[in-house]
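QA checklist item 7 of 12: single-chain prediction sanity check.
[x] sequence parsed
[x] length recorded as 243
[x] structure emitted
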Amino acid sequence: MAVITAFREGSRVMTLTEVAARTGVTRATARRLLHTLVALGYAASDGKYFSLTPKILDLGFAYLASSEIWRFAERDIQALAEEVDESSSISVLDGHDIVYVLRVPTKRILKNSLNIGSRVPAHAISMGRIQLAALPERDLGGYLASAKLEAFTPWTITDPDGLRAAIERDRAQGWSMVYRELEEGIAGVAVPIRAATGRVIAAANISLSPARLREPGKKAHLLEKLTAAAAAIEARLREGRPA
């Protein structure tokens, strides 16, 4: 997996030596792993350079195909994005990050690099905050003690105590709003999505420009529509009824 994830933007084609250096393994180990990937069809080589093949997408789509969120929420998120005319997404918490598993962008979108599979630090986005709010106290404390709270804009909360206060506020109100913390031109509101057991398993959000979020009544309107979409998804999860 380290070899697979070594191939990323700016390093889509690499030599054996480059893969070994990036992953911290010996050349012999890197050679064995790369040739295994080639034999399985997940990588290709011209004898000197290695690259991943489209088959590698099978690994990600295997997760999506088995994910109850992906199967039960796609239609509702699509309808939500069309109704509010803003980008809508669902993500799951994975370590210190959230990972997008559904995303419906609109023409208003300001950041086009976020797609299914994109990872974003949880502390700087509404979907991350509302999922952190659902963690048991021990897990939340561990997160705050170990996460690198990077400042993406002047408004990003990077102080652990300040972030805890924001998370506790979101827990109490049942939703999160993060304003210009990941990118100056983006604001977002998010609500949790719960499984039939009541456990928070994901979050849904609407992202838009800060100027639009400041429009009179906009936040309340978006939260109403977002909460309704989350409730519809939760109902499908309880009934075992895919979208």
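[x] summary fact logged: The CA atoms of residues 38 and 44 lie 5 Å apart.
[ ] second reviewer sign-off
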